[in-house]
Amino acid sequence: MAPPNTFIPGAAPISGQVPGTAPATPGQVPGTAPAVPGMVSTILLLKYKQTLFHARRLYVAGLPSTATEKSLKTFFNNAMSRIGGNSAGPGDAVLNVPVIKHGKKYAYLDMRSVEEASNAMALNGINFEGVQLEVKRYIRYNPLDAAPPGPSQPNPNLNVGAVGLTSVSVSGLENPDRIFVGGLPHYLTEQHIKRAARVLWAPS
Predict the structure, then answer these.
(1) Count of CB atoms within 10 A of residue 163's CB?
(2) What domains lie within the chain, and their CATH numbers?
(3) What is 79-130 written as a DSSP string?
(4) Residue 168 pLDDT exceeds 80
(5) Is this prediction's pTM over 0.70?
(6) pLDDT at 164
(7) Among the record's GO biological process terms, what is one (predicted)?
(8) Cβ neighbours of residue 103 under 8 Å, at least 6 residues apart?
(9) Which pLDDT band holds residue 22 (cuts at 50, 70, 90)?
(10) What is the pLDDT of residue 143?
(11) Distances in Å between the alpha carbon of 6 and those of 15, 17, 22, 35, 96?
């Protein structure tokens, strides 16, 4: 008896089978190679790691020229400790400051956990060396993909008053009523975009 998926010359093709090929396994697109379970697991694992990486990284803008990787890491670790944002336990919430661009006045922070990254969003507007910093999500962050690893919003019970903030003022919080539109010409104003949105998404 021929093993499964063996092409037998002269045999009538099964429905959906490409003539001259072995029949597809369940879930396989006709004419393509069968999926290998180990390969699928590897792809899903890589996707999860990428999602985790994006969810733990933050963008900090408005840096003074005197900012360094060490001063930023120390400052944010102290701030996280003071507001009660270290949800992963004792230790530093900020693991690394992998990128700092003085010319464009921004840096990236790699946080220890997704929940601590969300808590750090509550530090938006914090004063650092005389300037207010803007704390935002990494550009590749996707709140839907990142939902399993951790929350997308800060803990509402954080003591932001301990660092001079009066309330949790989160920049760029994602929610079902907000979308991102990129690649727009620089000359467009807010009114232009509003008019275009009304035309594109007007109820039919």
Answers:
(1) 19
(2) 46-170 (3.30.70.330)
(3) HHHHHT--TT-SS-SEEEEEEEETTTTEEEEEESSHHHHHHHGGGTT-EETT
(4) no
(5) no
(6) 92
(7) RNA splicing
(8) none
(9) low
(10) 74
(11) 16, 12, 5, 16, 54
